[in-house]
Amino acid sequence: MTDVLISEFMDEAAVADLEKDCSVTFDATLVDDRDRLLAAGAGVRGLIVRNRTRVDRELLARFPDLIAVGRLGVGLDNIDLEACRESGIAVLPATGGNTVSVAEYVLTGIFMLRRGAYLSTSRVLAGEWPRQALMGHETQGAMLGLVGFGGIARDLARRAQCLGMSVMAFDPFVAEDDAAWQTVERVDRLETLLAAVDAVSLHVPLTEGTRHLIDAEALMAMKPGSLLINTARGGIVDEAALAASLRAGHLGGAMLDVFEDEPLTAGSALAGVDGLIATPHIAGVTHESNERISWITVDNVRRALGVNA
Questions:
Q1: Is residue 159 annotated as part of the catalytic site, yes or no?
Q2: 212 counts as catalytic
C-alpha cells in the first residue's frame, strides 16, 4: 500500500529521504495519464503535485484516504481548495521555496527586453550589424510596477532597488498599515501603476476577479514602450490583446512564462509576435529551487501524516 504518491517531478534525494518513513510511489508520468493516476488512489494518504495535476472532486473521490496534498510550488489554482476543506484535507504549498528563482527570472526579462541586443544573435550571425537600432535602455533609474505584493514580489522589489530601480506596487489585499509598504510606493488603483511604470510584473493568483485583469483596456493604459512580465498564472493576461498591443508597437516587449493553455499550440494568438519572450512555465524552477521546494514539501507532508514528527 502506498502512503505517498508523487505525480510530477521533484528532487530525487528528497524522495529517497521520504522513503525512509513512508511507502512512496514516485511516477512523474502520472500527470499525463489521468486514468492511471485515478486508479492509484486507494490507500494514498499524501499526494505530492506540481501545477499540472488537477486535484479536483473526481480525484478526491478516488483517493478516499487522502490527508494531505503537498504542492511543489505556491500556486493553488489546480487544486480545488473548497473540496479539500470539505474533506478535511490539508493543502500544503512550498511557500518561499522558489522566491529567488522567480525574482531573478523577472529581472532577467527586464534586462533582456530593455536592452534588446540580447535577442539579436540570429541577425548578427547572418551578417547584419544593427548597432544603432539595438542601443536599448539601462535598467538603473527605471520604475518597476508590481501587481500583487506578496512574498515573491517583496523579494523582487528589494533586488530591483539594489539595481537602482524605483518600485511601485498595487495590492488591495495588503493592509495600508502593513510595514512592507514602507519600502515601496503604494498606489490604490491599478490604472495609476500601469500609466507610471517602465515594467509591470504580475504576482497575483488566477481567480474570477483576476482573469484577464490585463486586457486590452489595461494594456492601452500602460506607458508606451513599457514591458509586461507574467510569471503568475496564464489567464491573467488576455493573450490576444497582448499580441495586438505588441504588433501595434504600444508595448516595448513582454515576457510570458505562463499561458491560458499549456503547452502552446501553433494556433496561439501569440505565434509570430515580435518583442515577446516565451518560456515553458519555468520561472520558479531552477536546480536550486527544485531542491528547496522538494525538501519543504517532504517536511510538510511528513508533519501532516504524523510521520517522524
A1: no
A2: no
Catalytic residue selected from 58, 86, 262, 288: 262
Told to judge if 262 belongs to the known catalytic residues of this protein, a careful annotator would answer: yes
Residue-level pLDDT at 202: 98
pTM as predicted: 0.93
Predicted pLDDT at 246: 98
**Average pLDDT per 10 consecutive residues for the chain, totaling 309 residues:** 90 96 96 97 96 97 97 94 97 97 98 93 94 94 98 98 98 96 97 98 95 98 98 97 98 97 91 95 96 97 87
Q: Can you list the domains of the chain with their CATH numbers? A: 4-97+287-305 (3.40.50.720), 99-278 (3.40.50.720)
Catalytic choice (50, 71, 114, 281): 281
What pLDDT does 216 receive?
98
Catalytic residue among 45, 50, 203, 233: 233
Quote the CA–CA distance of 203 and 198 in Å, as a whole number: 16
Residues 225 and 200: beta-carbon distance below 8 Å: no
Q: What is the pLDDT at residue 97?
A: 96
